[in-house]
Design a protein that fits this description.
It is a single chain. Helix content is about 55%, strand content about 10%. The protein is of the alpha/beta class. The strands form two sheets. Strands 3-2-1-4-7 form a five-stranded mixed beta sheet. The relative contact order is 0.16.
C-alpha cells in the first residue's frame, strides 16, 4: 500500500477537484429535472465553447506537426560542429526498469547506440528494483558485456525494497539512481562540471529519434540560461501500435496530440513521460521525490519552486517512441489502458503541492501563481467532465423536457447535432495526421490495416468517455476520499 502523503493542512486541496467534479454532475442532474431549460442553455454554450476550443487546439496541433516535420529534416549533428561548447556536453540516460525482458532493454540500448550523437559522450544508467534482483542483475551483466564498450559507461544501480517514506515505483527508483550516480561521478569524474551534463529520464522502452541527443545538445547550447529549463520531446506510443487494439491506439494518439497542442504554448507546458533536464537542476532540488506517483511532471514543479519561478520547459519537436499498453488478451489490454490513464490522471496529486509551494514564495508573481493553479484545476476538471457533459448529460434535459413547446427546447437537438458535426472536423484532422506518425508497418501486418487505422477514429466519443472521463473521475474521487494510488507498472510486451 502506498504511504499517505499530505502537505500540511492542505487536505482541502486534495478534496477540491473531486468535489468540483461531483458537484457539477449533481447540479446538472438536479437542474435537468427542476429547470431543464437552464441546463439546455448551459449545454449549448458549453458545446459552442468546446467547438472553438477544438478548432484552435487543432491549429496548435498542426503548427507542432509542421515543426516536427521541419526538425526531422535538419542535420543537427552537423549544426553542432559550429558550436565549440557542444564537445563538452555529456548525456546521462536514466533507464529505470522493473521486470522488463532483456529484449525490451536491448532495443532501447540499440536505439541509443544508433543515435547521431557520439557514443563516448553518453553514459547509460540501468536502475533495477530489489523485488526483481535476480533477473535484473542477469540482464544488467548482459547489457554491460554487449554495450559497456559502446558507450562511455554503463552504470548499474539496484534500488532496495522497503525503504521508509517511499512509494514503490519509478520516482523512488529514480531518486535512488540520482544519488548513486552523484556519488559515482564525484569519485570517477571529479572534473566533469554539472553544467556540462544533461539527464534524460526515459521509460525503459523508450526509443529515441536518431537525432534526439544531437538536437537536445543544440538546444542546450543555444537557449538562454539552459540550466533553468527542462526539454520536452514529442511522446509517441507507437513501438507496437500496429498490433495494439483500436481503443489503445486512440488513447495513444490522443495523448500525443494533446502534447502537440501544449508544445506550441510553453507557458502551459509541464514535463511529461520521457524527457530531459539539466543535471545541475536535479542536484539543486535533491532529485525526484520518492513518495509520489507522477514524478515526470512533479520534477518540473520542484525546479520551478526551487528557482522561484525562473524555470521553464523548452519544447523539442523530435519524438521519443514508447510502447502502447498491451495485455495477453483484448480485455487485458483495455484494462491496462484504463489503469495507465488513471495513473496519468493521478497528476491531480500536484494541486496541494503547488498551492502550498506557490503560496509560500513571495518572489513569484501573483499572475504566475494564478496561471499555474488555474490551468491545473481547469485541465483536470475538463478531463473528467467534458466528455460526459457533451455526450451524456447534455441529452438528459432534452429528453425530460421533450414535450415542452419552448422554441429553444425544440431546436436544441438540431443545434447540438450541428455543433457535433463541426467538431468532427477536428477528428478528421487527427485521423489524417495519425497516419503520418505511424512507424514502418511490420511484415506480418496486413497492408490494408491503414484503413482500420482511419476507421478507428469513429470510436473516439466512446474512448473519450471510457478511457478519458472515467479514469480522471476515478483518480480525483480517490484523492478526495484519501484512497491514495500506488504506482502501476505498464506491462511492456512486443
Amino acid at each position: 500500500m502506498p504511504t499517505p502523503y499530505r502537505y500540511g493542512n492542505l487536505r482541502f486541496w486534495e478534496m477540491f477537484p473531486g468535489l468540483l467534479v461531483w458537484g457539477t454532475f449533481s447540479l446538472a442532474l438536479v437542474l435537468s429535472f427542476v429547470e431543464p431549460l437552464w441546463v439546455i442553455v448551459f449545454i449549448i454554450v458549453f458545446d459552442l465553447l468546446w467547438l472553438f476550443r477544438v478548432l484552435y487546439f487543432n491549429i496548435f496541433v498542426i503548427f507542432s506537426w509542421r515543426r516536427y516535420r521541419q526538425a526531422s529534416r535538419v542535420d543537427w549533428q552537423k549544426k553542432l560542429s559550429q558550436i565549440p561548447r557542444a564537445e563538452r556536453i555529456f548525456h546521462l540516460v536514466f533507464l529505470p526498469t522493473y521486470k522488463e525482458s532483456y529484449h525490451i532493454i536491448r532495443a532501447t540500448l540499440c536505439s541509443l547506440k544508433e543515435n547521431s550523437y557520439p557514443n563516448d559522450r553518453i553514459i547509460v544508467v540501468l536502475g533495477g528494483e530489489g523485488g526483481d534482483k535476480e533477473a535484473f542483475e542477469k540482464y544488467a551483466r548482459r547489457a554491460q558485456q554487449e554495450f559497456g564498450r559502446v558507450f562511455k559507461e554503463v552504470i548499474v544501480t539496484l534500488h532496495p525494497s522497503g525503504l521508509p517514506d517511499e512509494i514503490p515505483g519509478k520516482g523512488s527508483n529514480l531518486n535512488w539512481m540520482g544519488h548513486e550516480v552523484e556519488k559515482y561521478l564525484q569519485k570517477h569524474y571529479p572534473k566533469l562540471a554539472d553544467e556540462d551534463i544533461v539527464v534524460s529520464a526515459f521509460d525503459v522502452d523508450t526509443v529515441a529519434h536518431s537525432q534526439y541527443f544531437s538536437y537536445l545538445t543544440y538546444l542546450y547550447c543555444t537557449v538562454e540560461n539552459p540550466t533553468r529549463s527542462s526539454y520536452q520531446p514529442i511522446a509517441l506510443f507507437s513501438n507496437n501500435i500496429w498490433t495494439a487494439p483500436a481503443p489503445v491506439r486512440i488513447g495513444a494518439f490522443g495523448t500525443t496530440f494533446w502534447l502537440f497542442g501544449e508544445l506550441t504554448r510553453p507557458e502551459r507546458l509541464w514535463t511529461f513521460s520521457s524527457h530531459s533536464m539539466p543535471w545541475k537542476m536535479l542536484r539543486d532540488v535533491g532529485f525526484w521525490q520518492k513518495d509520489i506517483v507522477s514524478e515526470d511532471s512533479r520534477i518540473f514543479m520542484q525546479a520551478y519552486l526551487h528557482y522561484h519561478g525562473e524555470y521553464r520547459v523548452t519544447p523539442m519537436f523530435l519524438p521519443v517512441s514508447m510502447d502502447a499498453v498491451t495485455g495477453r488478451t483484448y480485455r487485458e489490454s483495455l484494462k491496462a489502458l484504463y489503469v495507465q490513464m488513471r495513473r496519468w490522471a493521478w497528476g491531480v496529486e500536484h494541486l496541494p503541492f503547488i498551492v502550498d509551494g506557490l503560496g509560500r514564495d513571495p518572489a513569484i508573481s501573483r499572475f504566475k501563481k494564478f496561471r499555474y493553479i488555474f490551468n491545473h484545476i481547469e485541465g483536470m476538471y475538463t478531463w473528467a467532465t467534458a466528455p460526459i457533459t457533451m455526450f451524456l448529460l447534455g441529452w438528459l434535459p432534452l429528453w425530460i423536457a421533450k414535450d415542452e413547446a419552448h422554441t429553444l427546447i425544440q431546436s436544441a437537438p438540431f443545434t447540438l447535432e450541428e455543433l457535433m458535426q463541426l467538431a468532427m472536423v477536428g477528428i478528421f484532422i487527427s485521423a489524417i495526421m495519425s497516419l503520418t506518425l505511424l512507424p514502418r508497418r511490420p511484415q506480418d501486418v496486413h497492408q490494408h490495416t491503414w484503413i482500420i487505422m482511419l476507421a478507428q477514429w469513429l470510436l473516439l466519443p466512446v474512448t473519450f468517455i471510457v478511457f478519458g472521463s472515467f479514469p480522471a473521475i476515478d483518480a480525483q474521487t480517490r484523492l478526495m476520499l484519501g484512497k491514495y494510488l500506488g504506482f502501476n507498472v505498464t506491462k511492456k510486451t512486443r
